[in-house]
Amino acid sequence: MPDHTDPAGREAAATAASDWNAETLRAALGKAAEWTIDYRSHVEERPVFPAVAPGDVRRALGSAPPRSADPFERVLADFDEHIASGLTHWNHPGFLAYFSSSTRAPSIVAELLVAAIGVNAMLWRTSPAATEVERTAVDWLRQAVGLPESFSGLIFDTASTATFTALLAARERAGAGVRDHGLAGGPALAVYTSEQSHSSVEKSAMAAGLGRRALRRIETDAAFRMRPEALESAITEDLEAGIRPAMVCATIGTTSTASIDPVPALRSISDRYGVWLHVDAAYAGPAAMLPEQRPLFSGWEAADSVVLNPHKWLGTSLDCSVLLYRDSAPFRASLALTPTYLESEDDETNLMDIGLALGRRFRGLKLWVLFRCVGTDGLAETMRSHIAMAAAAAARLVDGGVFELAAPVSFSTVCFRAKLEGDPEGADRWNRDILRRVNAGGRSFLSHTELDGRYTVRLSVGSVHTEERHLDEVLEALHRAATDLSPGEPG
Amino acid sequence: MPDHTDPAGREAAATAASDWNAETLRAALGKAAEWTIDYRSHVEERPVFPAVAPGDVRRALGSAPPRSADPFERVLADFDEHIASGLTHWNHPGFLAYFSSSTRAPSIVAELLVAAIGVNAMLWRTSPAATEVERTAVDWLRQAVGLPESFSGLIFDTASTATFTALLAARERAGAGVRDHGLAGGPALAVYTSEQSHSSVEKSAMAAGLGRRALRRIETDAAFRMRPEALESAITEDLEAGIRPAMVCATIGTTSTASIDPVPALRSISDRYGVWLHVDAAYAGPAAMLPEQRPLFSGWEAADSVVLNPHKWLGTSLDCSVLLYRDSAPFRASLALTPTYLESEDDETNLMDIGLALGRRFRGLKLWVLFRCVGTDGLAETMRSHIAMAAAAAARLVDGGVFELAAPVSFSTVCFRAKLEGDPEGADRWNRDILRRVNAGGRSFLSHTELDGRYTVRLSVGSVHTEERHLDEVLEALHRAATDLSPGEPG
Fold it and tell me: Which chain A positions have a beta carbon within 8 Å of B316's beta carbon?
């Protein structure tokens, strides 16, 4: 407890209370900038996944908050020693797990500026430029990926939030009055998505009060694409049972295999039954900037809403997930509320009216800075090189005879496994061991999934730091692990 | 369209595609750091609210994304000319609107480090230190505000998201099985909060599928505090009507007046009926660090969940909203899902299991850095000075005889109006005009609300940049405006 009868103590606290002066801030920013440059230059020398056990970092940081201020040098030293050494390095060039992502350098600088100004973009009035830069950057992205002018949108933290927000709009359209009356007493609603879609669709259905059981996991074909005829059967069955279809969520670039649902066929069906069509292109969406990839996005221009994440493949820092929609009315209908204390006389878009969060970071700036400092040609070229690297890696994996592809290669994602005929469980164990061995080496980081009930290794190229040589290295490590851990003859 | 048959064009694009090298990043960070220091040193010379009309910024930024890269110098110059001049300056010392907030310098530096490492804290495994720093910083905050060890928690973007997440947990407890079966077919649920509570409670009820009508706005007393007996009546009425009470949301520091609900009495009632008690202390919560303010928080230690926003009064940058709870089980029960591709063998907290979003920024770092670089004594002292400045301003406002308080002064928030006996509509007009005049001056920025049906001006002190002289200035401006705009005799 601070002793408030002690004048010396009060004085010390009063000194600590004022913010750093310009010189202290300049010195701290200079040190943090040097740390940043050193980190990015040498991250490859660190193991991708750190050698820490649960609780190690917490113990090192101490259990109680400090009463008095520490100089930044000491804080940065502790950060370097205890925190940076306990990170999984998403900006390591060998990070090829999940959907690999990275932070392009201009986005780092943009985040500094965002923090410096510290505005809240909830209303146009609470920071006009923040709202207008966000709308500009979102519209630039729309143009770059070739979506029609009728689409507009805004930036959320994650695709989970964007998809949830779209579901609320779809829910309102399917069950008019849910906003006011809620779901109790109304008809059950259903959401349709493929077996391969992201868990956020399921979570959204749960959060929105539709329940997990409202989710129809539509079966996929051999290439992991939603079967349109299975969708139509599910919808008609529900309608016969008095269940109202609320949303079809198609995916362009699914989480496991990056497969592409047949969006035009799904649009026809959802049109036929008056159902909202949402397209989850969180990972792959930015690749529509490449003319040669554009045909894969056929049909998304007819969706009611689309989500794409610049923080995945485009290289903005977390978090930056763009939701685009053709009509803002159902979004406003589902959630907009303006309390008196936020009423304003400005006839302008107030982004807080779309979505749940009131306070809003100035997320648009990093996307705008990235467009300006890299340009659409540069952004496209990076993705083109990732797609080429992934295709080459897939070809070389198969060439060795040890591995086989577990799914068609789509965008920059490769799903594969070491082949072991006649012993699926042995194959699962072998592949799990191979993945563990490669990841334990610290030079590469891959992830896994399950396809057709089988353990499957995934490699996804999406970092601005990744070069051919990093793929050479992981391919060599995979082959070496497969040989070292060879299960021999199946029992 | 890029011409991909042109080898020179391809080469240029390939150059642009690679990320900045260390020297380019160093130069850009240096320029952005100097811009930051200059901005913070001179922000007081800018008008708090910018002289822009809707659309001005968008027009200046241009309508199409650039194909080629611009040097950072040019981008920064455009940022300065077109964007920084179109901001509402939340870090201006005269910003006294809403709940005034500001970014303390160490938080700016922390955001740079967060962007530099660019990790995703969805699972412990996806960045062990990010999860553990977040847990450490949240626990330090818990200790600093005196909540018992039984509370743990995590960081969301905003209090809206935190309260929504708490409502999902409460919804699951009140209507077991909502997670799986949804709300259709089940009993109607209700949420109780005061007439003065934040709009996010209403939005959460809408988003969660309970509907706006599920919200019971409980009446308040003369000091704008929820009336316990009115709460109990509402609950018993609902029970008699077959409606199930899901959550009571009490507020410590309401949005308009910063009033404080009688939490111990509300806890007794919610215990009696087995209802979840959530405490919204988004604004005021950090003030529990002050021993002399701690009694105002009586009862919150018995809540099921509490939300406090370090990005409001504590000085972290947006976004940093801390949700604390006594039991994580109902949170997991309401939403947790782990898809195969994220299954891991680590026996550790995976923060994505609490809440909707999967991807998670490393928000814990700025809170940890702030504790280290300022210390709890320093953080407390800043809030203490704000409370003293608000009290002094209120006293001087009343002294002049022109203004009267519209609510008891609570924490650092003052609600007031210019007095005009017998003409409430004239008074509303007068006060609206006074506020407009003061805000138009560009030296101060106040907001307004409605209390007892009357237009009310609000002044809230919460920025590390605000000093006594800034309050002198706004008080003088208010008195001058009241005199200049005096409505004379009421009609």
Answer: none
